[in-house]
Amino acid sequence: MKNFVALDVETANNHLTAICSIGAVMVKNGEIAERFYRLVRPIPNFYADINIRIHGICPADTEQAATFAEVWAELRPLIGNLPLVAHNKAFDESRIRATLEYYGLQTPSNAFLCTVEQARKVLGKRLNNLRLPTVAAYFGYKLKSHHNALADAEACAYIAERLFR
Asked: Relative to the CA of 11, which of 24, 42, 51, 127 has its CA 20 to 30 Å away?
């Protein structure tokens, strides 16, 4: 697969609509053509301590951030009709869909692929786990800022280029 958009979201709490950051990487002809990262004011707007420990984003970071609807208005043209890819798409897709529904926005009909599912098929039991850093390292990619949405989207893009050939 040479053309797609890899996505990753981080969340403030366990609500499906609590996206607090989103990263996207557009890949064209096998090369990163564009990067997108935004902080988002989550709905509901509170942070669970465990989420802060995971990604380091706290309430002060998103106090003045745009809503997901505003961020989506910027991101949607970048995505266009390209396939979407996420590492553990069940997490990212469910959050994006729920948040779009919350704002009354249309869910895109783009194909949505999962690098975890594909890694399970292609790599079988070669790895101890299918976490993003593990799969990335298997393919020679050093993920430096795990749980930064843009860094995770870049790692996902790298993995997807190798798994969806």
From this structure: 127
Strand order in the sheet with 84-86: 31-39, 19-28, 4-11, 84-86, 112-114
Q: Name the percent of the chain lying above pLDDT 90.
A: 99
Helix (H, G, I), strand (E, B) or coil at 37: strand
pLDDT in tens, 66-112: 999 999 999 999 999 999 999 999 999 999 999 999 999 999 999 99
Residue 132 CA to residue 130 CA, distance in Å, equals 6
What's the pTM?
0.97
CA dihedral 157→162→163→165, nearest 10 degrees, is: 110
**SS3 string of 51-112?**
HHHHHCCCHHHHCCCECHHHHHHHHHHHHCCCCEEECCHHHHHHHHHHHHHHCCCCCCCCCE
* SS3 label, residue 9: strand
